[in-house]
Write a structure and sequence with these properties.
The complex is a heterodimer of chains A (266) and B (340).
Chain A: H1 5-20, H2 23-46, E1 52-53, E2 56-57, H3 58-75, H4 79-88, H5 92-96, H6 102-131, H7 141-166, H8 175-188, H9 200-208, H10 216-223, H11 229-264
Antiparallel strand pairs in A: 1-2
Chain B: E1 4-16, H1 21-28, E2 34-47, E3 52-56, H2 63-70, E4 78-83, H3 92-96, E5 99-103, H4 115-125, H5 130-144, H6 159-171, E6 177-181, H7 189-206, E7 209-214, H8 217-223, E8 226-231, E9 234-240, H9 241-248, E10 251-258, H10 263-277, E11 283-286, E12 293-298, H11 304-314, E13 317-324, H12 327-335
Parallel strand pairs in B: 3-7, 3-8, 5-6, 6-7
Antiparallel strand pairs in B: 1-2, 1-4, 8-9, 10-12, 10-13, 11-12
Classes of the chains: A mainly alpha (266), B alpha/beta (340).
């Protein structure tokens, strides 16, 4: 427990920073309401003459898309921006003189920001969905595994952010890289539309990539929660493997990247 | 055993030779034209427990590079470096527990949060128990009077207040050694004095070893018994500060701004000074700032007032300043053999 203490303090600190800038969240919520309104009418017109598309009803698809936007905002902890800033401005030297692991420092700071997003944006959005858009959620085991899936998804998403941030060791500006990552993630992970809507061949490719484990997996758990528990456990296992894989990769990249600093100066 | 042991320490950087202009920048993309910069070039010294050592030298002398190697951020190219018996970069996380670091240009405090929150976070990072924490904070408050700042956001602090908080923060976990990298940079005289007294007090009451890098000879004079002067990665002097202050304490630089400066003015001034005070007097003329002419004199041989009156009577003077000798001139004089 003692080993976790420093990191929990960092989490608390970054949550507090979020609270100081609470007014910014109002605009994010406002923007999201506009987006949800547009998505609602867009999908209603797509579903005008059909009951189901690719096995999903309108309610399911809209819920998927709306929750997707809420989770997308939830995961936006800007670790990539923060890390590349630290590296570029030499702030990383300050952290390296502390008894902290840099990756876990970044992870828990991001977690604090994500928790702030959860309370300030995600929860209000979900309330809005159930109260205003009257989305109906069917009960099932998927709802129980959803929180676990969400945590695993966050870890994968963080590892991607961290990886992009580390590139600042090699290249002063990671702006282009961040934007590219953002686009790839949004489209290929199923954050914008369920993967069922892609052609079969592309779907097959996307399902073996790590991106779907970030949005598609947890979102499907609540969109169709009334399936066999075994299916959900398999989904969690795949996510868990991606957490491990991305963690190992980021560790390796860090040990290489830090050498650049150690050898060529900060 | 000494707390810090450094032997034949080297740190070389590979730097790309940048070419001029747009076409140069383009060619640099594909260029393999590197040069080796010897930032730290074969230095050796030992620092004992409880010492305050002034680590000084002009810009780019290799001070910060050495500090970064001692704190485990940089890996030496070769040579031995031991802090409390361990190699810093190999045991970074464990070593971090026994040292405190202040980088004058950067803060370890949380920019957006009230001051006290940073202290609380650091308390958790270093796993300091509540009783020790309260005792430390009480002591710092007696010393510095930080309490009124606790609820202020760090970004609203003045540079001096922030620096006091940063120094306090670096002592919070009672480290064995504290590295202060330019702690008085950009501060006014009053706050400088306060920072010096705080550092001195902490060193005396806690026996904390302190390595202080600075540009300001005043800092070193006020705090250190021992001084290490470094330039171009090499140690120029390592020893008692008294020898250095006796030698340079009497030096003053008279900075003069002339009304009608021309190329012949310097020459003219040189001739007049030599004529009045004789050839062998230690008076040097130079220019380090635009519009200002520096006349450096040793007050032990030449009274400052005489030089000043000579300048005032012979030239049209627009402005005059008197400053203590600069780091660069000290280094220059050591090269010229001042310390024998």
């Amino acid at each position: 427990m003692n080993r976790l203490r420093p990191y929990l303090a960092l989490l608390r600190g970054s949550y507090m920073v979020g609270m100081i800038y609470r007014y910014g969240f109002l605009f994010t919520i406002l923007g999201n309401i506009v987006y949800l309104g547009v998505a609602f009418y867009l999908w209603r017109s797509i579903y005008q003459n059909v009951r189901t598309l690719h096995g999903l009803t309108f309610d399911q698809t809209f819920f998927y898309v709306a929750l997707g936007s809420a989770v997308f905002i939830l995961f936006k902890a800007y670790a990539d921006w923060m890390i590349s800033y630290d590296i570029r401005e030499g702030m990383i030297a300050v952290y390296l003189t502390k008894p902290l692991d840099y990756q876990f420092y970044a992870l828990f700071t991001s977690l604090g920001a994500a928790l702030m997003n959860l309370t300030a944006i995600t929860v209000p959005t979900v309330l809005l969905l159930t109260l205003v858009f009257k989305v109906h959620i069917t009960p099932g085991p998927g709802l129980v595994v959803f929180p676990i899936s969400l945590i695993l998804a966050f870890l994968i998403s963080f590892n991607f952010d961290y990886l992009v941030g580390l590139m600042a060791f090699y290249n002063e500006s990671v702006w282009g890289l961040t934007i590219t990552k953002e686009v790839i993630l949004t489209v290929l992970s199923g954050a914008l539309i369920p993967l069922q809507f892609f052609p079969d061949a592309i779907q097959k490719i996307l399902l073996v990539l790590p991106f779907q484990a970030i949005y598609y997996t947890p979102l499907m758990m609540v969109t169709q929660p009334d399936q066999n528990l075994v299916i959900f456990l398999q989904m969690l296992a795949v996510q868990f493997l991606w957490v491990i894989a991305t963690f190992v990769i980021t560790r390796l990249v860090y040990t290489q990247a830090i050498k650049v600093l150690r050898v060529s100066g900060g | 055993m000494s707390l810090i042991h450094i032997q034949n320490l080297n740190k070389y950087f590979k730097v790309l030779n940048r070419r001029e202009g747009m076409s140069g920048a383009f060619r640099d993309l594909f260029s393999g034209d590197y040069k080796i910069v010897k930032a730290v070039d074969g230095i050796s010294y030992d620092i004992e427990v409880g010492e305050i050592v002034g680590y000084i030298g002009p810009n780019g002398a290799g001070k910060s590079t050495t500090i970064k190697m001692m704190t485990g951020i940089l890996k030496p190219t070769d040579g031995v470096i031991l802090v409390n018996g361990h190699t810093p970069y190999a045991n970074r996380i464990r070593q971090a527990q026994i040292m405190g670091v202040v980088f004058g240009q950067r803060t370890q405090l949380w920019w957006d949060l009230p001051v006290i929150e940073s202290f609380k976070i650091l308390k958790e990072i270093y796993i300091v128990d509540q009783i020790t924490f309260d005792r430390h904070m009480g002591m710092f408050n007696d010393l510095v009077g930080l309490k009124p700042l606790y609820s202020q956001q760090v970004r609203t602090l003045s540079l001096g207040q922030r620096m006091l908080c940063d120094i306090t923060a670096s002592f919070l976990h009672n480290p064995q050694v504290v590295f202060l990298d330019e702690p008085t940079i950009g501060l006014d005289v009053a706050i400088k004095a306060k920072i010096r007294s705080v550092i001195k007090e902490l060193n005396q009451t806690r026996k904390t070893t302190i390595i202080l890098t600075t540009h300001d000879l005043g800092d070193v004079e006020a705090l250190c018994h021992r001084i290490i002067i470094i330039d171009k990665g090499k140690i120029l002097y390592d020893g008692d500060i008294k020898k250095v202050t006796i030698l340079f304490g009497a030096y003053r630089t008279l900075k003069v701004q002339f009304d009608d400066f021309s190329n012949s003015t310097l020459n003219d001034l040189d001739i007049k000074l030599k004529k009045r005070f004789g050839e062998k007097n230690d008076i040097s003329i130079g220019q380090t700032e635009e519009f200002w002419t520096d006349v450096t004199i040793d007050q032990a041989c030449t009274p400052l007032s005489d030089v000043l009156s000579l300048v005032m009577t012979n030239f049209n003077v627009f402005d005059v300043r008197i400053v203590e000798i600069s780091m660069e001139s000290v280094v220059q004089k050591i090269y010229n053999g001042a310390l024998g």
